[in-house]
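From the shared-data thread, chain only:
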Amino acid sequence: MTFGFAELHGGGTRVRIVPGLGGKIISLDALGREWLWSNDAIPLQDPVDGASYVETGDTGGYDECFPTIAPCHLPGGIPTFGGLALPDHGELWAQRPGVAIETHPDGQRAVCRWEGRRMPYRFTRSVQVTPAGSVTMHYSVTNAGATPLPFVWSAHPVFHLTSLTRLDIPHGARVRVWAQHGEALRGMASEFRWPHARLEKRLADLTVPDQVARHFACKLFIDVPPGATMAAIEDGDARIEVAFDERTVTHIGLWLNKREWTPLKRGKPYLNLVMGPCIGAPDSLADALGEWRGAQWLAPGSTRSWPLTWRVRRVGPAASPETPHAS
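Structure, as tokens:
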């Protein structure tokens, strides 16, 4: 199946966006490499609202999750939305957004706009590749209803996990465990400080995921500490980092899967990771409204906006850490 796409270029970086796949970014090519993982086990197909994302839409790339990440039923006591069923991965991935390509002096910008189906909101994401090769994103969500709107949001970029992968996340930040898979993580503490996770018989340093165990998977939420502005993944001599405003981005959602988990019966477990900036936690909006107390609220008629910037550069003795890649 062939899908149309919009492609943005700048400074040696290329971004490809597919409106027919819910505005998914299927490619982020920079420094001569493809940064986004793609799933050979699930073919690209027209998304179906309410379907299981992990079984039909988890093709890799970069999605947006809103107003929930995990499927859930909202608690009955929530005004207007009590008892509402929300789908896997939220609503945006299964909806074709309106897309506008805008030309600006510093390059083209792709603007995707979604309308809520089960809840009254308008969600917008703009993507631009700068002449220096950075990928700048600007988000906004507006409550179009008459009552406060609860939500969580997460960017969901899926990256390659290799033996050289190293994570640069604020040291000492609080980490809470949302899910874990595999015997290697037996006894994992439900809360710890990055990067040292206490297991049943040892401490695991998550900075280099490949060294944790032969097989494991987990979903973690890291509280963004005051003053933090960045998280990054290094792989060999290259690094991709995301810059954010800690006043608006509250968490980093981290999914690590080293050949332990797949939703497909008789499927080969995946080897990938997600490092996604989030507003609110955890994956389930129902749990965010409950024990986690991580839900966000948007007043009627109000809009919340926030930026992200992704940068790719060389690292190591030969690279200048202050200079973004440009070619």
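Residues 6-170+221-258+272-314 form a domain with the Beta-galactosidase; Chain A, domain 5 fold (CATH 2.70.98.10).
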